[in-house]
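Let's see one such:

===
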Amino acid sequence: MKKIFLILIISVFYSCGGAKYNYFLDTGKQLDFTNGKWILNSTKSNSRIFDSELYNNSLKEFKKILGDSLIEMNDLRSTKLVAPKIKFDLTDSDLNELKRDTDYDYLINIDGNVISDDAGTLSFPNQNENSSNRASVSISIYDLNAETLISSSQAYGKTQNQDPIFPDNSHLPTINPSSHMIMLKGAEKLIRKYKNNQLKY
């Protein structure tokens, strides 16, 4: 038992795995966040562990961009009659209805997807190379006045083994981030892409 604990401690320092992220911004890479009133819809994900954390982290990151111009959908429902659930992909009719019911200008939808935890918490040198922890996050931003999608983006994260600091430690297991953590980090990184690429006047 002591040997296992020692291996885990050593691997934290010398054989920590990470995740590699790819980003896809289909439309709306650069947006003007200085005008209008924005709504953050409830996030949707298949993670029972970190579903609420996905929402809280997304709210925190978008607040850094929008400040007081951003309102939460649940807060808006306390003063306006808005449907109890707003789906991720919206039609022109849906957008028209949201504009009428909210009198806001933009809607942000965020969807998280835990794809696999095949690599587990620990990966060993002889483990199947195709095993990985994977997750994705999608963001859609709608202009309620124009009734159109103005930005669609996605972050895809996958565990990636890193070489140990010392060659002699190549036999040590690698500690991997879970797919749930990859989802949270992917959302944070993707929203920061919006912050870094926003139009400035």
